[in-house]
Amino acid sequence: MIIATRMTLACLLLTVGLAATASAAERPNILFIIADDQSPFDLKFYNQESKLDTPVLDQLAADGMVFDGAYQMGSWSGAVCTPSRHMVMSGRTVWHIPSRLNRKRNPNEGDNQLVPDNLPEYTMAAVFNRAGYDTMRTCKKGNSYDAANKQFTVVKDATKRGGTEESGSAWHGKQVLDYLNEREKTKDKDPFLIYFGFSHPHDTRDGTPELLEKYGSINHTKSTTLPEPNDKQPQMPPNWLPKHPFENSHLNVRDEVAVSGVWKNRDEATIRNELGREFACSENIDIQIGKVLNKLEAMGELDNTYIFYTADHGMAIGRHGLQGKQNLYQHTWRVPFVVKGPGIKPGTRAEGNIYLLDVLATICDLTGVDPPETNEGTSFKPVLTGEQDTIRDVLYGVYCGGEKPGMRCVKKGDWKLLKYDVPSAGVHQTQLFNLAENPHEFLPQHHSKEVIAMTGITPEKHQTNLADDPKYAAQRKELEALLQAEMKRLDDPFVLWDQKN
After folding, report:
1. How distant is the alpha carbon of residue 97 from its chain centre?
2. Rounded-to-integer distance, Cα 93 and Cα 484, Å
């Protein structure tokens, strides 16, 4: 259905009328916090072995609900953050959103029934502005949904990836604190929606000196040398590999070959140093979140605020021999996700099976705001209130920012299927994992003596790719059918090598 260019006057008046029926004190606030590139396995509430200290986020998890199954649907661009953030803002699926600044990376653009021209009018801030909320955002610039970002009443965007107060994450925190101080000064009692985004721990991961020292790392800049080893550095990832075992459709992307401090290196010194840099940046984010939460508490707003914490996607940094976000393994397809707020039982966990695109429907549901007619997400409020554990059974993922068709995956229960279609390299690969038994998605290469010596982990025999094991033919057949069905349902414009049109 083609969306009308403007809301009718009647609809607008109805929206305003509904907003006026509840007093400001009864309407909860929303604080949506999003990091730029963060694997869930960096955080202790997902990985007890992690060396990353995030006491504020740990407390948020203890006071709220942790989602063990939160995902970003995928990307048709090497800049995975672009479609991810478009989905957050619009509540639409990956093949139904525009590219940034009309770059036409999504093949479905141009079809107004799939990608509405007037979609910015139905994105997060526009919806909440009409509902009587004050809206504010701070985040990085670039690789985002510019037209949707402009809908916020207050916008303080800048890319801050340095190691000082002014050039790093503290800058984003200051914008939120300044906004809250102004509300306090003017006695503004309207409910608020704050989009609190960071530019870190995306590279370049220039941490503050004290936090770099804590994690034994340096801001390494010399491509001809390796950083010095340090016992304070994070341990090697359990699923580290010296290289990915085959061409996955985009191994030459910038994130895999040109990140300052890493480049093409996958050795222990490089990976552990880079993880230390990432942890330094992530702990700094935690510190800034703490300042904002303290301010909300001092203002008496904390108990009436739903707080969301997530990232736009995960990251590899050595896992499976990869460095970036252009893959569909769990460390990258999954995202951290925590919610605290009224009616959410402290210390709870749920699988969820949510996508980031479900956020818009959910915050509308929590605040009594009607979701826009363009929304395709599903509210996970029933999960937050403990009524159900998941909102869907099947999850779909895509990456085709490089050679097409690229990668696809589907997950149901503990079973996950991944497929790689790279015609120029003659690559037609299928992977099948039982994530309950093989959570790190170990491959045959992880069983080699050289890799075991590096990681200190010896995988069990069954912890491998099961795609060609006859014992699991039924599981593979089911997931192959589910993948093709999801591709069709979601308007994926591609067909894989072994699929029928």
Report:
1. 17
2. 16
d(CA 105, CA 252) in angstroms, rounded, equals 18
3-state secondary structure 16-76: HHHHHCCCHHHCCEEEEEEEECCCHHHCCCCCCCCCCCCHHHHHHHHHCEEEEEEECCEEC
Range of the domain at 306: 9-393
**Cβ pair 135, 151 in contact under 8 A:** yes
Dig out the tokens for 375 from the structure: 């929304």
Q: What's the pLDDT at 104?
A: 83
With a pLDDT cut of 70, the percent of the chain lying above it is: 95
131 and 212: one domain? yes
Kindly give the residue spans of alpha helices, DSSP state H, lying in 201-312: 209-214, 254-257, 268-299
Three-state DSSP at 240 gives strand
Say if residue 48 is exposed, middle or buried (CB neighbours under 10 Å; 0-12, 13-18, 19+): exposed
Residues 384 and 440 in one domain: no
201 burial class (0-12, 13-18, 19+ CB within 10 angstroms)?
Answer: buried
**SS3 state at 348:** strand
Chain segment 223-276, per-residue pLDDT in tens: 999 999 999 999 999 999 999 999 999 999 999 999 999 999 999 999 999 999
Read off the pLDDT of residues 431-485 as tens digits, 9 standing for 90 and up: 999 999 999 999 999 999 999 999 999 999 999 999 999 999 999 999 999 999 9
* Nearest-angstrom CA–CA distance, 230 and 261: 16
CA angle 363, 364, 368 (to 5 degrees): 120
The answer to whether the peptide bond before residue 153 is cis (omega within 30 degrees of 0) is no
> What pLDDT score does 298 carry?
98
Picking from 145, 131, 113, the residue whose alpha carbon sits closest to that of residue 193 is 131
Tokens coding 341: 């707020």
Does the residue 497 lie in any domain? no
Tokens linked to 120:
């910015």
DSSP string of 411-423, one letter each residue: EETTEEEEEEEEG
Query: Is residue 202 a part of any domain in this protein?
Result: yes
SS3 65: strand
Q: Tell me the whole-structure pTM to 2 decimals.
A: 0.95
Give the end of a domain, one of 393, 414, 449: 393
- Residue-averaged pLDDT of the chain: 94
- In degrees rounded to 5, what are phi and psi of residue 399? -140, 115
Choose one of 366, 393, 420: the last residue of a domain. Answer: 393
State the pLDDT confidence band at 39, using cuts at 50, 70 and 90: very high
Q: Are 74 and 66 in contact (CB under 8 A)?
A: no
One-letter identity of residue 461: K
Specify the pairing of strand 65-71 against strand 406-412: unpaired
Mean pLDDT of 281-304: 98
pLDDT score recorded for residue 101 = 83
